[in-house]
Amino acid sequence: MCITLMGVNFFLIIKNFKLENTNTIAAAAFGGIITADFCSGFFHWAADTWGSVDLPVLGKNFLRPFRQHHIDPTSITRHDFIETNGDNFMVTIPFLGRIVWDFISLSEEEIQKKFTWNCYVFLLAIFIAMTNQIHKWSHTYFGLPGWVVLLQDCHIILPRKHHRIHHVAPHETYFCITTGWLNWPLEKIHFWPILEYLVETVTGCKPRADDMKWAQKGSIS
């Protein structure tokens, strides 16, 4: 369903595209990609840094895979397409569906008024949907299609060498895993350490306490 909506939206965007709006639409599309990268970093940071696998529901289903990934980073490469991408694809369906609804239900004037915003949401949804696949490619060192390697080399999607920085213990930096564009500037302004300090001050929780326990388990085993 998600892939179908992507295709339908792409067709409708091309159909309604006006050349005079190129710069605005390009800026909106770029903003969508940047937002997706930040979202990937924020959720990755939250899952890596806080909580415990012992938490009901959330621990087993959301946090545990992140803990295991630091012990066995290449395990993601053994996941099939559905296991890798199903959750992210599902999240974007309502947003992609809404864009289609706008195109088929609004007047031409209303479509053009919302066109820039819908381009932003479309690219945001595309890159959110593809985040786990891009992350999987960043851990795949053999058999990648040439076009994927080219996108990595051009840093259009997360490069393999770039993502290795995150996998150096204690896994406290370079959390953005869609394009990785925001990792360097967020590192320079100490965004994550400041956020962790604020959370620890308010809650008393120590960042990555549970993740360190899992790292010790992995070293022992």
UniProtKB/TrEMBL annotation:
Nucleotide-binding in keyword set: no
Bilayer topology term: Multi-pass membrane protein
Protein location: Membrane
Pfam families: Lipid_desat (PF10520)
One cellular-component annotation, GO: membrane
Domain Lipid desaturase: 33-210
Keywords, ordered alphabetically: Membrane, Transmembrane, Transmembrane helix
Family label: Belongs to the fatty acid desaturase CarF family.
Name of the protein: Lipid desaturase domain-containing protein
Species whose genome carries this gene: Cryptolaemus montrouzieri
Lineage: Eukaryota, Metazoa, Ecdysozoa, Arthropoda, Hexapoda
